[in-house]
Amino acid sequence: MINTINGNHPKGKFVNSYKSLRLVGKGYDISYTVHCHKNAHELYNLANDRVQMKNLHPNAPAPLNGKNAFDSGETTLAGFPIPKLLKRIDAALLVLKSCKGTAIPCYKPWAQLHQIGQVNSLHDAMADQWDEKYDKMYEEYKVGFTKCFKNGKVDIGAEGPQWTADGPSAGSNAMVLFSNSTDPDQWSTSSNGTDVDESWFVGKDGEEEGLWDDWE
Question: Which intervals carry biased composition (Acidic residues) (predicted)?
Answer without folding.
Answer: 206-216
